TrEMBL record:
Main location: other
Protein name: Claudin
PROSITE patterns for the chain: CLAUDIN (PS01346)
Entry membrane topology: Multi-pass membrane protein
Amino acid sequence: LQITGLIFGGVGMLGTLAATAMPQWRVSAHVDANLVVFESIWEGLWMDCISQLGVRLQCKLYDSVLALPPPLEALRALMCLAVLLAIVAFLLAIVGVKYSQPSKEGPQAVSTFIVAAGVAFLLTGSLALVPVSWTGGGIIRDFYDPAVPVPLKRELGAALYVGWASSALLLAAGAMYC
Protein backbone atom coordinates (compact mmCIF):
# COMPACT_ATOMS: atom_id res chain seq x y z
CA LEU A 1 0.00 0.00 0.00
CA GLN A 2 2.86 2.35 0.83
CA ILE A 3 4.63 1.60 -2.46
CA THR A 4 1.40 2.13 -4.42
CA GLY A 5 0.85 5.42 -2.59
CA LEU A 6 4.42 6.43 -3.35
CA ILE A 7 3.95 5.66 -7.07
CA PHE A 8 0.62 7.52 -7.21
CA GLY A 9 2.15 10.46 -5.36
CA GLY A 10 5.21 10.55 -7.64
CA VAL A 11 3.13 10.44 -10.81
CA GLY A 12 0.75 13.03 -9.34
CA MET A 13 3.70 15.28 -8.46
CA LEU A 14 5.10 15.04 -12.00
CA GLY A 15 1.64 15.65 -13.47
CA THR A 16 1.16 18.75 -11.33
CA LEU A 17 4.52 20.07 -12.48
CA ALA A 18 3.62 19.31 -16.11
CA ALA A 19 0.19 20.95 -15.85
CA THR A 20 1.78 24.06 -14.36
CA ALA A 21 4.29 24.35 -17.20
CA MET A 22 2.02 23.39 -20.12
CA PRO A 23 0.65 26.22 -22.30
CA GLN A 24 -2.58 24.35 -23.15
CA TRP A 25 -4.85 25.55 -20.35
CA ARG A 26 -7.22 27.31 -22.75
CA VAL A 27 -7.33 26.28 -26.42
CA SER A 28 -9.08 28.13 -29.24
CA ALA A 29 -12.47 26.71 -30.13
CA HIS A 30 -13.39 26.02 -33.75
CA VAL A 31 -17.14 26.62 -33.75
CA ASP A 32 -19.78 28.17 -36.01
CA ALA A 33 -18.32 30.63 -38.50
CA ASN A 34 -14.79 30.43 -37.11
CA LEU A 35 -13.14 28.99 -40.20
CA VAL A 36 -9.55 29.58 -39.13
CA VAL A 37 -8.87 25.95 -38.31
CA PHE A 38 -5.28 25.80 -39.48
CA GLU A 39 -4.28 27.94 -36.52
CA SER A 40 -4.77 27.09 -32.85
CA ILE A 41 -4.23 29.47 -29.96
CA TRP A 42 -3.06 28.08 -26.63
CA GLU A 43 -3.16 30.10 -23.43
CA GLY A 44 -1.26 28.95 -20.36
CA LEU A 45 -0.14 30.28 -17.02
CA TRP A 46 3.21 31.48 -18.33
CA MET A 47 2.80 32.04 -22.07
CA ASP A 48 0.56 32.15 -25.12
CA CYS A 49 1.30 29.99 -28.15
CA ILE A 50 0.07 29.84 -31.73
CA SER A 51 0.24 26.50 -33.51
CA GLN A 52 -0.08 26.55 -37.29
CA LEU A 53 -1.23 23.26 -38.82
CA GLY A 54 0.42 21.41 -35.94
CA VAL A 55 3.79 22.04 -37.60
CA ARG A 56 4.93 25.47 -36.51
CA LEU A 57 4.67 26.54 -32.88
CA GLN A 58 5.32 30.11 -31.80
CA CYS A 59 5.22 30.90 -28.08
CA LYS A 60 5.56 34.20 -26.25
CA LEU A 61 6.06 34.57 -22.52
CA TYR A 62 3.86 37.14 -20.82
CA ASP A 63 5.66 40.49 -20.89
CA SER A 64 5.10 41.71 -17.36
CA VAL A 65 4.06 40.07 -14.13
CA LEU A 66 2.45 43.35 -13.08
CA ALA A 67 0.28 43.46 -16.22
CA LEU A 68 -1.31 40.03 -15.59
CA PRO A 69 -4.96 39.88 -14.59
CA PRO A 70 -5.43 39.04 -10.88
CA PRO A 71 -7.11 35.65 -11.55
CA LEU A 72 -4.09 34.51 -13.58
CA GLU A 73 -1.75 35.61 -10.78
CA ALA A 74 -3.82 33.57 -8.32
CA LEU A 75 -3.78 30.50 -10.60
CA ARG A 76 -0.01 30.76 -10.95
CA ALA A 77 0.48 31.10 -7.20
CA LEU A 78 -1.79 28.16 -6.35
CA MET A 79 -0.16 25.86 -8.90
CA CYS A 80 3.38 26.81 -7.80
CA LEU A 81 2.38 26.19 -4.19
CA ALA A 82 0.88 22.83 -5.20
CA VAL A 83 4.12 21.84 -6.97
CA LEU A 84 6.24 22.73 -3.93
CA LEU A 85 3.91 20.92 -1.56
CA ALA A 86 3.84 17.87 -3.86
CA ILE A 87 7.64 17.69 -3.74
CA VAL A 88 7.61 17.94 0.07
CA ALA A 89 4.90 15.26 0.30
CA PHE A 90 6.83 12.96 -2.02
CA LEU A 91 10.02 13.38 0.03
CA LEU A 92 8.10 12.68 3.25
CA ALA A 93 6.63 9.57 1.63
CA ILE A 94 10.10 8.35 0.61
CA VAL A 95 11.37 8.80 4.16
CA GLY A 96 8.28 7.04 5.53
CA VAL A 97 8.72 4.05 3.20
CA LYS A 98 12.46 3.90 3.86
CA TYR A 99 12.01 3.77 7.61
CA SER A 100 8.91 1.58 7.65
CA GLN A 101 11.05 -1.41 8.61
CA PRO A 102 11.63 -1.89 12.33
CA SER A 103 14.28 0.53 13.54
CA LYS A 104 15.66 2.11 16.68
CA GLU A 105 13.48 5.21 16.11
CA GLY A 106 10.46 3.03 16.79
CA PRO A 107 7.00 2.96 15.22
CA GLN A 108 6.20 6.52 16.36
CA ALA A 109 8.76 8.10 13.98
CA VAL A 110 7.57 5.93 11.11
CA SER A 111 3.89 6.73 11.60
CA THR A 112 4.69 10.44 11.86
CA PHE A 113 6.31 10.47 8.42
CA ILE A 114 3.55 8.34 6.91
CA VAL A 115 0.73 10.50 8.29
CA ALA A 116 2.56 13.71 7.36
CA ALA A 117 3.00 12.44 3.80
CA GLY A 118 -0.68 11.48 3.61
CA VAL A 119 -1.89 14.85 4.85
CA ALA A 120 0.53 16.64 2.50
CA PHE A 121 -0.67 14.58 -0.49
CA LEU A 122 -4.32 15.28 0.38
CA LEU A 123 -3.61 18.99 0.74
CA THR A 124 -1.64 19.07 -2.51
CA GLY A 125 -4.36 17.26 -4.45
CA SER A 126 -6.98 19.67 -3.15
CA LEU A 127 -4.76 22.67 -3.82
CA ALA A 128 -4.07 21.62 -7.43
CA LEU A 129 -7.75 20.88 -8.01
CA VAL A 130 -8.83 24.45 -7.26
CA PRO A 131 -7.07 26.35 -10.09
CA VAL A 132 -7.71 23.62 -12.65
CA SER A 133 -11.43 23.43 -11.86
CA TRP A 134 -11.68 27.22 -11.60
CA THR A 135 -10.22 27.58 -15.09
CA GLY A 136 -12.37 24.79 -16.49
CA GLY A 137 -15.51 26.35 -15.05
CA GLY A 138 -14.64 29.74 -16.54
CA ILE A 139 -13.98 28.24 -19.97
CA ILE A 140 -17.31 26.39 -19.98
CA ARG A 141 -19.19 29.47 -18.76
CA ASP A 142 -17.64 31.68 -21.48
CA PHE A 143 -18.14 29.05 -24.19
CA TYR A 144 -21.91 29.02 -23.70
CA ASP A 145 -22.18 32.79 -23.10
CA PRO A 146 -23.70 34.42 -26.21
CA ALA A 147 -22.07 37.75 -25.29
CA VAL A 148 -18.57 36.29 -25.84
CA PRO A 149 -17.55 36.66 -29.51
CA VAL A 150 -16.86 33.39 -31.35
CA PRO A 151 -13.14 34.12 -31.96
CA LEU A 152 -12.65 34.56 -28.20
CA LYS A 153 -14.32 31.27 -27.21
CA ARG A 154 -11.96 28.68 -25.77
CA GLU A 155 -12.09 24.96 -25.03
CA LEU A 156 -10.58 22.89 -22.24
CA GLY A 157 -6.89 22.32 -22.89
CA ALA A 158 -4.77 19.26 -22.22
CA ALA A 159 -3.19 20.87 -19.14
CA LEU A 160 -6.55 20.84 -17.38
CA TYR A 161 -7.00 17.12 -17.95
CA VAL A 162 -3.45 16.49 -16.72
CA GLY A 163 -4.21 18.64 -13.67
CA TRP A 164 -7.43 16.76 -12.88
CA ALA A 165 -5.72 13.38 -13.24
CA SER A 166 -2.79 14.53 -11.09
CA SER A 167 -5.15 15.80 -8.39
CA ALA A 168 -6.96 12.46 -8.37
CA LEU A 169 -3.66 10.57 -8.03
CA LEU A 170 -2.46 12.87 -5.23
CA LEU A 171 -5.75 12.50 -3.35
CA ALA A 172 -5.57 8.71 -3.77
CA ALA A 173 -1.97 8.67 -2.51
CA GLY A 174 -2.98 10.77 0.51
CA ALA A 175 -5.88 8.45 1.26
CA MET A 176 -3.59 5.42 1.09
CA TYR A 177 -1.09 6.95 3.49
CA CYS A 178 -3.72 8.15 5.92
